[in-house]
């Protein structure tokens, strides 16, 4: 079961999301929160897999809450607003996904499943702007400086995983490609994000495309 916490200050919206998710055999809504602070407190206590969270909420906004929940649960922002400051702010805070509230029921359910598998997901309507912005992120976030190798702290295996993230592969696909368990691939992803000081898989993918990691002999790029 995928355990989900739903946080939104509008009771009707919360009820609608809960109704959609609770009718799905592999998803369980374990709690509801009416504001960001309550969402953080409940998530820290209940440890859900995913927190579906609005941005504009009382006491604590969704972006700040997402930042506090890093390492506790995967956060998916579900909001009416697709303003750039919200999209980029959420991703920098470590959110695993960004969806608009006009997302239909089937897409919402699939989004929960995708994030639960360890992948990221962004509403198609904001993807292009997000890619353009992160592609232009400063050199300190990914480029080598003064001839320094940007991936010098990564192991050979982590470089391979990063390369495949840049190809757009999911954790399951990376696991098959490299002959490892999916959980092992997810662990490698988490470690390389921490070493590179990146807050999302999306940033890692862009970085890998801009500065392809050298994976040594057997480089899949030569296959």
Q: How would you portray this structure in words?
A:
This protein has 2 domains: 132 residues, Response regulator (Rossmann fold, 3-Layer(aba) Sandwich); 84 residues, Winged helix-like DNA-binding domain superfamily/Winged helix DNA-binding domain (Arc Repressor Mutant, subunit A, Orthogonal Bundle). The chain contains 10 helices and 6 strands, in the order βαβαβαβαβαβααααα. The protein has a 6-stranded parallel beta sheet, with helices on both faces. β1, α1 and β2 form a beta-alpha-beta unit. α2 runs parallel beside α3, α7 packs across α9 and α7 crosses α10. The chain is globular, with a radius of gyration of 18 Å. The C terminus is likely disordered.
Q: Which characteristics define this entry?
A:
six-stranded parallel β-sheet; 2 domains; 48% helix; Rossmann fold; Arc Repressor Mutant, subunit A; 223 residues; 6 strands; alpha/beta
Instruction: Tell me the strand percentage band.
Output: 5-15%
CATH superfamily of the largest domain: Response regulator
Biggest sheet strand line-up: 2-1-3-4-5-6
pLDDT under 50 segments (min length 5)?
A: 139-148, 217-223
Organism: Sphaerimonospora thailandensis
Keywords: DNA-binding, Phosphoprotein, Transcription, Transcription regulation
Domain Response regulatory: 3-116
Modified residues (4-aspartylphosphate): 54
């Amino acid at each position: 079961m995928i355990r989900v916490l739903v946080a939104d200050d509008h009771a009707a919206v919360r009820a609608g999301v809960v109704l959609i998710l609770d009718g799905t055999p592999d998803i369980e809504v374990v709690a509801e929160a009416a504001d960001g602070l309550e969402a953080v407190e409940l998530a820290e206590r209940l440890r859900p897999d995913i927190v579906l969270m609005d941005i504009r909420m009382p006491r604590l906004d969704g972006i700040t809450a997402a930042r506090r929940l890093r390492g506790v649960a995967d956060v998916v922002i579900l909001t009416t607003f697709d303003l750039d400051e919200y999209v980029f702010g959420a991703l920098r805070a470590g959110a695993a996904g960004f969806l608009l509230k006009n997302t239909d029921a089937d897409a919402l359910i699939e989004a929960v499943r995708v994030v639960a598998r360890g992948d990221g997901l962004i509403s198609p309507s904001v993807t292009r702007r997000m890619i353009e912005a992160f592609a232009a992120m400063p050199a300190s976030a990914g480029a080598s400086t003064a001839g320094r190798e940007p991936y010098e702290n990564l192991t050979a295996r982590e470089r391979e995983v990063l390369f495949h993230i840049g190809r757009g592969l999911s954790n399951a696909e990376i696991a098959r490609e490299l002959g490892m368990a999916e959980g092992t691939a997810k662990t490698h992803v988490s470690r390389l994000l921490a070493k590179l000081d990146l807050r999302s898989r999306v940033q890692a993918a862009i970085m890998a495309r801009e500065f392809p990691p050298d994976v040594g002999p057997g480089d899949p790029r030569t296959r």
